[in-house]
Amino acid sequence: MKLAVARVADSEDPVLVEIDNDKATVIEGARPADLLAVALAPQDWPGRIGQPWDIVDVRFMAPIARPGSLRDFMAYDAHVINSLSALGQKPSPEWYEQPVFYFSNPAAILGDGEGVRRPRGSARVDYEVELAAIVGREVSDVDAEDPHALACLAGFTLMNDWSARDIAAQEMKHFLGPAKGKDFATSLGPWVVTPDELDIDASGRVNEPALSYVNGQIYTDNTFYDMTFPWPKIIERASANTTLLPGDVIGSGTVGFGCILELRTRDKVKYPFLADGDVIELSSPKLGVLRNTIIPCR
């Protein structure tokens, strides 16, 4: 099942829709806030209202506009290796012992089509191709070896973890962060896909394409599959000694060559950091296209 929060026709009031074959149909009796409930128990929401809309005529909003928390992991060693290679470094052996994450800003969530405002003082704005899991059920201390470790998830969506590389580099010299280099924007959408619709293997890895485009030119051509730490390990770590709540968002981290920082290790001229007016698209056939444009700082 694919679910989205959207505005249809000329309405300014968002509705909850189901996406099917490039069509969007309003779910009877459901509000945008019911997205998780519908994802977890679609049989309780059998009705649809009106004629389906072509998705090109639908304005998608962030499926989770204000998550209770936003954790972003670093689950792909290819991203770490590529990023550190520019500094002549390699990941430490300790990096492979357990997945690590940072908390980002749940008050800075953007949806498809929204402008990403450049942070003041940054000349090195970057995108990052990620997959995000949406928590649907409250859980604590999940065991990664439990065959039902992912049962707490309502679904997955594309995530663009925007980065101001210059700001982050400065603040991380002090062994904290990233903070201001990250908390200006995170994009989610355009819709949430329930786990049963995705190719997820027994290890909990999602085998779906991961693509990015800048101004129509392909930059990233990879998959979400090659995780050093699969999703059960991520959920285990995120829920350790704490409680995950419905609506919490958990990012996978960036796929290999899923950002300009990595691509510049190949060619600095071909892959400049993002400029005002650049249009960035993250894409995966089942997960849709998440499109944003860089706009000037205030």
Helix and strand layout, with pairings?
Blueprint: E1 2-7, E2 15-20, E3 23-27, H1 35-40, E4 48-54, E5 59-60, E6 70-73, H2 77-85, E7 101-103, E8 109-110, E9 115-117, E10 125-126, E11 129-135, E12 139-140, E13 153-161, E14 163-164, H3 165-171, E15 186-193, E16 209-214, E17 217-223, H4 231-239, E18 243-244, E19 249-251, H5 260-263, E20 279-284, E21 288-295
What does this structure look like?
By secondary structure, the protein is mainly beta. It folds into 2 domains: 2-60, no CATH class; 70-295, Alpha-Beta Complex (Fumarylacetoacetate hydrolase, domain 2), CATH 3.90.850.10. Helix content is 12%, strand content 34%. It contains 5 helices and 21 strands. The protein has helices at 35-40, 77-85, 165-171, 231-239, 260-263, and strands at residues 2-7, 15-20, 23-27, 48-54, 59-60, 70-73, 101-103, 109-110, 115-117, 125-126, 129-135, 139-140, 153-161, 163-164, 186-193, 209-214, 217-223, 243-244, 249-251, 279-284, 288-295. Strands 1, 2, 3, 4, 5, 6, 7, 8, 11, 13, 15 and 19 form a 12-stranded mixed sheet that branches. Strand 1 and strand 2 form a beta hairpin. The longest helix is centred in the N-terminal third of the chain and has 9 residues, at 77-85. It is globular, with a radius of gyration of 19 Å. The N and C termini lie far apart (39 Å). The model has no long low-confidence stretch (mean pLDDT 95).
